[in-house]
Amino acid sequence: MGFSPLGLIVSIVVLAPNLLLLWFPPRGRNVVVRVPRPLEGVERAGQALCLVVPAITVPGAIIWWWVLPAAVALATYDVLWCRYLVEGREQTLLYASLWRVPVPMAVMPVVVFLCAAGWLSSPWIALAAVVLAAGHIPVALLTRRAIRSTPPSPAPRPA
Q1: What is the pLDDT of residues 110-126, one digit of tens each?
Q2: Which of 51, 97, 126, 133, CA to CA, is 20 to 30 A from 116?
Q3: pLDDT value at position 157?
Q4: Are 44 and 131 contacting, i.e. CB atoms less than 8 angstroms apart?
């Protein structure tokens, strides 16, 4: 245990884009999904662990080649945030597929943290990423399913 500037950077670059939702919330209809409490708890625990664990875990041997897949996953995640902002900030964009990945905005952060675990030789970061995956991906899939099954709101009638 100890401070890791590299781990802190990983946590910040992955989780900071989520702050965009404060300034740029989804427009239009917003489907709210009831998530089972245990699953919600696992998701929140994973988010907290991925924020804190990389920053407080002194790296082992640095394995530099892990930076490449981490950077690709992070760039993909950032492109998905750009897609959300540019294409109209609809809630559906947060859960839209990319290639054959059904919820890439839930998968990419997990991939980045797993790669960071390899890069920093940290089983603790890997464990945090697995907890995040166990909660965040199923919650995203439930939300995606609910969005797809909810009929669109009727257009407002002129007065």
Answers
A1: 999 999 999 999 999 99
A2: 97
A3: 59
A4: no
Of 97, 101, 115, which is closest to residue 10 (Cα–Cα)?
115
Rounded Cα distance between 40 and 9, Å, is 26
Predicted TM-score (pTM) of the model is 0.87
Cβ-in-10-Å burial (0-12, 13-18, 19+) of 89 comes to middle
Count the residues in the chain: 159
Locate 142 and state its tokens. Answer: 């439930």
Kindly report the three-state secondary structure assignment for every residue of the chain: CCCCHHHHHHHHHHHHHHHHHHHCCCECCCCCCCCCHHHHHHHHHHHHHHHHHHHHCCCCCCCHHHHHHHHHHHHHHHHHHHHHHHCCCEHHHHCCCECCECCHHHHHHHHHHHHHHHHCCCHHHHHHHHHHHHHHHHHHHHHHHHHHHCCCCCCCCCC
Half-sphere exposure of 52 (CA within 13 A, CB side): 7
Within 10 angstroms of residue 86's Cβ, the number of other Cβ atoms is: 9
Q: What is the largest CA-CA distance in the chain?
A: 67
Q: For residues 89 and 21, what is the distance between their CA atoms, to the nearest angstrom? A: 9
Residue pair 144/102 in contact (Cβ under 8 Å)? The answer is yes
Burial of 69 (0-12, 13-18, 19+ CB in 10 A): middle
